[in-house]
Amino acid sequence: MGRGKIEIKRIENPTNRQVTFSKRRHGIIKKAREISVLCDAQVSLVIFSSLGRISEFCSPATSLPKILEKYQTNSGKKLWDAKHENLSMEIDRIKKENDNMQIELRHLKGEDLNSLSPKELIPIEDALENGLIGVRDKQSEIMKMMKKKGRLIEEENQKLTYMLHHQQLAMEGNVRELEQDYQQKNREYASQMPISFRVQPIQPNLQEAK
To answer: Which residues form a coiled coil (predicted)?
Structure first.
């Protein structure tokens, strides 16, 4: 028996609806890929699920923006206003400028010079000379700064050495003053002692005499 006809209406059960969406999505993307290959057609397919998730397919030889631009040209319908068109033109201009800058950068690196004429090489040579002058000026400036820092460090070192020397002299002077004060006090103390305590006669050992 053949399969029964399915009534085309919204599936109320969320699980069944998600399963059906997944199967049908794979099927329609497969059909889009087949018609693109078999018939050499430019196909672009965009699908949004009920949850807002996007699925898309585009023929390998084209892109979605190109498909939309072609649709706008052939149908006469504007998909975006003048503001978006100006924005698109600005993007194209920036891309072109970026490509030109990449080419100039390769030329400054010495790459892809065979395609240039002698006249086109002159600005590159001038730019390289100006860059070299700038580099040398920067190197000279850095060397001056390093020498200046070296002098400052040397002066600071001399200042610290001078301060340390004076501190050592001050410490040595304090030590001498303490020694002199100690000796002076000893002399004063000795002069104040009774004579009997100053000299103790040596008594003979009576036991040894026996």
So the answer is: 77-111
Neighbouring residues of 117: CB distance < 8 A, sequence distance ≥ 6? none
Side-chain half-sphere exposure of 93, counting CA atoms within 13 A? 6
Q: Hey, what are 111's tokens?
A: 């790459």
pTM reported for the whole predicted model: 0.38
Residue 210: what pLDDT? 47
Other residues' Cβ atoms within 10 Å of the Cβ of residue 47? 14
CATH number for 11-78: choose from 3.40.1260.10, 1.20.140.10, 3.40.1810.10, 3.30.1490.270: 3.40.1810.10
Q: How sure is the predictor about 137, in pLDDT bands with cuts at 50, 70 and 90?
A: confident
Which whole-number Å values give the CA distances from 15 to 18, 23, 138, in the listed order? 5, 13, 70
CA 201 to chain centre: 91
- Quote the mean pLDDT of the chain: 80
